[in-house]
Design a protein that fits this description.
The protein has helices spanning 8-25, 32-49, 102-115, 124-128; strands at 60-67, 72-78, 88-98, 132-133, 135-137, 163-164, 175-179, 187-191, 203-208, 222-224, 251-264, 272-274, 278-287. 19% of the residues lie in helices and 27% in strands. The strands form 3 sheets. Strands 3, 4, 6, 11, 12 and 13 form a 6-stranded antiparallel sheet that branches. It has a 4-stranded antiparallel sheet with strand order 1-2-7-8, with no helix packed on it. Helix 1 (8-25) runs antiparallel to helix 2. The radius of gyration is 25 Å and the shape is globular. The protein has 293 residues and is an alpha+beta fold.
Length: 293
Amino acid sequence: MSLLIFNRKDRLEIIENRVVVIFNSLPSCWSFFSLVNIFFILFFISSCGLPTYSYLAPPQKTQVRDDPTTGEYDLIFQNAYTNSLNIFQGYEIFYKIYYPDSTSSTTYLTDFNKIDGNSSPDYTLLKNNGFRRLYISIGEVTSSTQITSGIDETLHSNSKPAFLLDENMLDADFEIRFNFLNENYNNIESYNTSTYTFDPTPYLYRWVYNDQISDPASSDYIAKSFNDTDFDINDSDMPTSITSANMTDVLNLYITFYICSYGRDTEDITQSVYSEPEYLGTLSFDCSITDSY
């Protein structure tokens, strides 16, 4: 897909061409003052009528591995390196947890059909259908700590939890891996390359509210990982169909992941730009659900 992007230089060139055409068609009795007026009118019209569009392409999924026999649980995708360096900055990742009963299976298919191929270049459909942002930590979040220390507030604030790439990676052709190996690591790494590495290692985590742990007065959220003991029925991202921690000793949860390319608008850097959501895959997690009540 290609889009025409008009900047101020393009606009002026178009205006100059218009003025030349008009000048050549005018009678010789017309004054210079009249031409100046025409020029400013055309400039005003062109400034209002030729908006600049910022466009981002999503990354492309390459592999989904969900194999309990080898312990490989990961999502691998191709960096969206063809995006404009003036716009592209990284990614935002979204997830939703499903309980594998008949109702949730229907919900999963409904969500997929709504989002896949029907989304605009933002995350509106994801948000409206219960998907949540994944957050990034520069330190590992474990079930024993469940704290937010180690978050790089400069790059990964609570309001913009984007996975930002280093400048030398933005136009690099390589694969990125979200690694859930043995459901214990939850980190991000480059895949099949030693040229591009993440240092320090970024980790993926859930940013949830739990009314049995969090402080209701301050609406504190807590950071949780994807380890098998990190899922509590009172967590705000858990399916409402899970009503008891004792439904089974080990509960199999399905987690679906989407990703959007992320950047800044060329005309207004305070405005975020997103690609259409790209489906990365669905992984199964064997969890020992807790009840913090």
